[in-house]
Design a protein that fits this description.
The complex is a heterodimer of chains A (about 170) and B (about 210). Chain A has helices spanning about 5-10, 35-45, 105-115, 145-150, 160-165; strands spanning about 15-20, 25-30, 50-60, 65-75, 80-85, 90-95, 115-120. Chain A has about 170 residues and is of the alpha/beta class. In chain A, strands 1-2-5-4-3 form a 5-stranded mixed sheet, covered by helices on one side. Chain B is an alpha/beta fold and about 210 residues long. Chain B folds into 2 domains: about 1-175, 3-Layer(aba) Sandwich (Rossmann fold), CATH 3.40.50.12280; about 185-214, no CATH class. Helix content of chain B is about 45%, strand content about 10%. Chain B is built from 9 helices and 5 strands; from the N terminus they run ααβαββαβαβαααα. Chain B has a 5-stranded parallel sheet, sandwiched between helices. Chain B is elongated, with a radius of gyration of 24 Å. The N and C termini of chain B lie far apart (about 75 Å). Classes of the chains: A alpha/beta (about 170), B alpha/beta (about 210). At the A-B interface, helix 4 and helix 5 of A face helix 4, helix 7, helix 8 and helix 9 of B.
């Protein structure tokens, strides 16, 4: 099955707003967030057995996060990119842990760095950051420079610290 | 044996025995390299046959408890800092720290990152910093010969600094590692991580139209 046929096939799944072929071996599917488990399990049963990764994109001007699921099919030799938008204020999307257990790592990381809740994921404990108290750092409204200035001291105040310590 | 200790103590006070010790210390250095970042790439050529660090009496050591030099190669994230402090405190005195590359000096290219500290010398005393991103093996060996001279003259006294200013260093370490409050103030509504209770309360408020529970 080539990517044009696959795009037409996926277009009929409930919750899918657009499904297009891309280049000569990819399809790009846009869907509602609530339809993700159904859509992804449909794709999985149609040959897309491999979940490459899950990404989150912060579209701050549109007030939305975009979740991107990259799948690959060993049967059809096709890539599938599934994109779903979630609201930035109450960011939550259904977990796909039951389809791919390895999604746990991605969901936990996205929850830590963007704050998106994955409904049904039992373990969203912080993963990478040490004792993090602020808002999630990869959101576009997080001021990383100001954080670095206040938390670790910046280049220009190195002189003061050198003076402060005397043996 | 007890006699020898007494003699050596007296001589440490007037500095003679310490001078002799420093002469030998500077010629037999065991190095523990904590490869936090990209600096580790420059160490194999420095240690192996082309540049051959061993001709200066510097060799690699596997454990902190037998090492003299702690080499921090590259950027230091907060998680790494915790391990560096534990490693440093396990090392027996006399001990020296070498900051390798730009990142331990002032943050380097990660100066505005939320995850990496900017000044390593705020948390542990650094005796020698090697600038560069990354320093070439020639620069590394040049730095080590400088460190050897400093040790021989008795000027590399970072570990004494650490002992004397223990409170200052510990305060800085705790400030980063045991933070209890958000640095940029509490996250605004809708900016913190979402948890199930938040989503539920917002959705309930949509249904009842009361604008949030309680």
């Amino acid at each position: 099955m080539n990517n044009r046929e696959m795009a037409v096939l996926v277009e009929n799944v409930p919750g899918v707003s657009s499904s297009e072929e891309r280049y000569d071996n990819q399809i790009e599917v846009r869907a509602d967030a609530f339809a993700l488990p159904g859509l992804l399990s449909y794709l999985k049963s149609n040959g897309f057995a491999h979940l490459s990764n899950i990404l989150a994109v912060d579209w701050i001007e549109e007030g939305e996060f975009e979740l991107v699921y990259n799948l690959f099919s060993y049967v059809h030799k096709l890539h599938a990119t599934v994109k779903a938008r979630v609201d930035r204020e109450i960011a939550h999307a259904p977990s796909i842990l039951t389809l791919w257990p390895q999604a746990q790592v991605y969901e936990r990381e996205i929850h830590e760095f963007f704050g998106i809740l994955f409904d049904g994921n039992p373990n969203l404990e912080p993963f990478f950051l040490h004792n993090w108290q602020d808002s999630p750092p990869l959101r576009k409204d997080f001021d990383t420079e100001e954080y670095s200035r206040r938390a670790y001291g910046m280049i220009d105040d190195g002189v003061e610290h050198a003076k402060e310590q005397s043996i | 044996m007890s006699e020898l200790l007494e003699i050596s103590r007296e001589e440490i006070i007037d500095g003679k025995w310490e001078r002799i010790l420093n002469f030998f210390r500077s010629r037999s250095l065991w190095m523990l390299y904590y490869c936090t970042g990209c600096g580790a790439v420059e160490l194999p050529p420095t240690m192996t046959s082309r540049f051959d660090m061993e001709r200066f009496g510097i060799g690699p050591m596997a454990t902190p408890r037998q090492a003299d030099i702690l080499l921090v190669t590259g950027y230091v994230s907060v998680k790494t800092l915790k391990r560096i402090i534990r490693t440093y405190e396990q090392m027996p005195e006399p001990k020296w720290v070498v900051g390798f590359g730009s990142c331990p000096i002032d943050g380097g290219i990660y100066w505005n990152s939320y995850a990496t500290i900017n000044h390593l010398e705020k948390y542990i005393p650094v005796d020698l910093s090697l600038g560069g991103c990354m320093p070439r093996p020639q620069a590394v060996i040049d730095g080590f010969t400088k460190l050897m001279k400093l040790i021989e003259k008795g000027e590399a006294v970072g570990y004494k600094k650490y002992r004397l200013n223990h409170d200052w260093y510990k305060r800085n370490q705790r400030e980063v590692l045991e933070r209890t409050e958000p640095v940029l103030g509490p996250p605004a509504k809708g900016q913190a991580r979402a948890f199930a209770r938040d989503v539920e309360s917002v959705e309930l408020s949509h249904i009842s139209g009361s604008g949030g529970e309680k």
